[in-house]
Amino acid sequence: MKEAVNWWSQEHDAIVLSMTAEGHPASHIGKLLGRSKSAVQCRHSRLTKRSVATGKRLIRFTAEEDAKIAELSDAGKSGSEIAEIMGRIMSSVIKRARVIGKPLHAKAGQKSGKDQRERLFHSRGRNGHAQLSRSR
Question: Quick check: is 87 in a domain?
Answer without folding.
Answer: yes
